[in-house]
Amino acid sequence: MSCVYPGSQETNSIVACISTSVAAGPGQWSPPCTGHWCSSSSTALGKTADNAEVAQEEIVLPRRKTWDKLAVLQTLASTVKRDPTAAHYMFPDDPYLMPKNAANFRLFALSKESGKNAAKFIIKQFPQYFDKISVHPDVTCFMPEILTPQIEGVSEEALKERIHLRRVKESVDLFDQLVQAGTPVSLETTNSLLDLLCFYGDGESTQEKEEEAKKEEVKEDLEEPGVNSSEQKAPKRQFQRGLQSSGPRWRENNNAERIFKIMPERNAHSYCAMIRGMVKHGAFVKAYDMYIDLLNERHKADVHTFNALISAVPHLKDRFSERWELAKDFLNHMAQQEVQPNLLTFNAVLKTLRRCGGVGRNMSLLVIKEMEALDIEPSLATYEHLLFMFYRGAELHPSGIISEVLDDVEKRSFTPEDPDDANFFNTAMQVCCDLKDIKLAYRLNKAMEKGDNWKFLSMDQLNIYWSKFFSLLCMMEQIDVVLKWYKEMSCSLFYPSPKNILELLQALDAANYLERIPSVWEDMKQMGFNRRPELLEELLSLMSREQHPDEIQQAFAKCAEDIKAMHEQSRKEQVQLQWTGSTLGCTALLFARAGRTQDAWNMMERFQQINRIPTDRVLDGFWNCAKQTNCPDEAIKLVKLAASLGLPASQRLKSRTEKEFELSENQKKMLESIQSDSDSDSDSDSDRE
Questions:
Q1: Model confidence at 218, in pLDDT bands (50, 70, 90)?
Q2: Is 511 helix (H, G, I), strand (E, B) or coil?
Q3: 490 in helix, strand or coil?
Q4: Which of 31, 221, 408, 429 is 20 to 30 A from 376 (CA-CA)?
Q5: Residue 463 · residue 471 · CB < 8 Å
Q6: How many angstroms separate the CA atoms of 176 and 188, rounded?
Q7: Same domain for 150 and 289?
């Protein structure tokens, strides 16, 4: 057998053939030199072509795999599980700095974002203090962004720079100076200025808005001098609230309209920018009129303009059928102008159908089929619009549609494509709650945790989502599963609301698992819910409803002691907690069952102080405690309290005391004196009448 050594002719020929094939690209082979390949192969194998035919084997090289720069970090991150005891990632892992409830969570998160915005404001307002940067080598992408104009003077280049820096007022002023000087501005630059103005709505500052609001108020006062002062104040407050909530609106004859009118030449870009700006800032009728002008000028709109017009349909028509017809007209115009629809087009149609009643519900499935025909994959916003239409109101459709939606969602890891994508998980979880289907909720939660889908839940939506999920767990799951989720979710995924705590207490009651109430009370104190009257009522009512073993009763009495101390402490504060008859009776009963007789009587004596009457349940429970401890004096004292309050139960308690206790002569006389006292009081009342 002949050997092939490195550098020999046979080896070089094989390498040349392989490199020729590789040069053709992955998966594409160019035909090698067959004769040379066969002769070299046969020589290398020690065989000749005359002895046997050499079977040529095709060599397939794998395609090149391009890895993401974060692939290693993502792989390592996938091996780490969430720590249920740790704080949210945006907060330091310090027990003194971690928020305790949803209100603190929101406050701390907004404070963090406010600090970032304050830093950006300082850098933007005082850039001269941040221009000394000595970095070697100078990496451009790591350098801070230049936010101050570098081109001085009145020129089109200076205008372009200010448009790029998004300085709305300076751009408008510079454009006016160019027009007044007779310097022509190119159509491209003017369209860029229109884009800026239509996006920001002239970029009015908050101070300018407040001044304009004050002028409107003065104008209203001058127009209506005969209206009294109380009637004048209400419209002012309403106007201010509307101004703050609605954001910038499209003003009449604003800079965008003024510049558009004086443009010597307009193209489709000019009209499309105006239409999108008018729709964004609420001038829907003007946007439709501008679209008619675009058609009259024989221009074609782009897909983004059609998307804006379709989203404005509910504001242009009142009747459901008219809205759908107008949306179809826009779609037909897209087909006539050969404009290819995209995902946002169909999402805009579905969003319009949400406000078309039964017509929208019937047509929505046809829209989905059209998307499939055009090979457009739905986004989370697409599914959210569907769920909103089919599961809104009292008439809930079967779970078939949401099951099909989850079948598609479970297979994908979504990326943001539509601003409404963030609403899907909350809407879907609300549907699961309305259907009372815990299996669908588990599937939805699994889909939410897949890939980066969890990033669609913002700071506010995150707590709402988990709150709904926990409510469904308390309603449908076994108590062990509920407590497991509660332990893993609390303070790491979400902060329970008072409604969630109330649902948890009701779940413990339904499962007869009341021994866990003291731990829930500790969580309530930590989250700041220990002053909620509705929670205190429910908590004390559950603890005092039945007799429990001594260990549990002692724990319940400790909770009652905390509640009592909290009421006493609130006397020194401006907002005081008020005892009610129910909370007072339940607290006294808990003390009595735990053997803390003096504390129990202190609570019972407060009924007279607050002019409340204990219920028969509290009186019977208190009497039973005296019977268990064989304390006739306590029973006689209770009868005396009931008689002093004029309760009908006093006679019943008196007779039970006489029958079930072995009373001494002194104790019998005390009972008889209580009866005579009550009779004398009733006689005096009748004499007064």
A1: very low
A2: coil
A3: strand
A4: 429
A5: no
A6: 16
A7: yes
For residues 556 and 630, state if they share a domain: no
608/630 same-domain check: no
Residue 516 belongs to a domain: yes
Q: Which of 70, 52, 53, 15 is nearest to 37 (CA)?
A: 15
Q: What is the mean pLDDT of residues 604-619?
A: 77
Distance between CA atoms of residues 645 and 638, nearest Å: 11
C-alpha 625/C-alpha 538 separation (Å) is 22
The mean pLDDT value of the chain amounts to 79
Contact 409, 383 (CB under 8 A): yes
Q: Tell me which long-range contacts 191-194 makes (C-beta under 8 A, separation of at least 24).
A: 191/267, 191/269, 191/270, 191/273, 192/160, 192/163, 193/159, 193/163, 193/259, 194/256, 194/259, 194/260, 194/270, 194/273, 194/274, 194/277
Assess if residue 412 is contained within a domain: yes
Give the chain's domain count: 5
Is the pLDDT at 15 greater than 60? The verdict is no
- Let me know: does 301 contact 275? Beta carbons within 8 Å: yes
**Site of tokens 């407050």:** 237
Q: Are residues 638 and 679 located together in one domain of the fold?
A: yes
pLDDT band at 257 (very low <50, low <70, confident <90, very high): very high
C-alpha–C-alpha distance, residues 583 and 560, integer Å = 10
Assess whether 443 and 405 both reside in one domain. Answer: yes
pLDDT of residue 399: 65
Query: How far is 516 from 479, CA to CA, in rounded Å?
Result: 11
Write the pLDDT tens digit of every residue in 57-70: 788 877 777 778 88
pLDDT category of residue 112 using cuts at 50, 70 and 90: confident
Helices (H), 337-399: 343-353, 357-373, 380-390
User: CA-CA distance, 563 to 582, in Å (whole number)?
Assistant: 13
Confidence bin at 489 (pLDDT 50/70/90): confident
Using a 10 angstrom Cβ sphere, with 0-12 exposed, 13-18 middle and 19 or more buried, the burial of residue 237 is exposed
Residues 489 and 502 in one domain: no
Query: What is the per-residue pLDDT for 237?
Result: 34
Contact residues for 621 (Cβ-Cβ < 8 A; gap 6+): 544, 589, 592, 593
Query: Which H or E run includes 354?
Result: none
What is the extent of the structural domain holding 406?
377-495
The answer to whether residue 328 scores a pLDDT higher than 90 is: yes
d(CA 549, CA 562): 20
Higher per-residue confidence, 662 vs 227: 662
Q: Do the domain assignments include residue 212?
A: no
Instruction: State how far the Cα of 683 lies from the Cα of 171, in Å rounded to an integer.
Output: 93
Quote the CA–CA distance of 384 and 399 in Å, as a whole number: 15
Q: How confident is the model at residue 78 (pLDDT cuts 50, 70, 90)?
A: confident
Q: Which of 60, 77, 92 is the last residue of a domain?
A: 60
The answer to whether residue 140 is domain-embedded is no
Tell me: the pLDDT tens digits for 291-313?
Answer: 999 999 999 999 999 999 999 99
Q: Are residues 484 and 520 in the same domain?
A: no
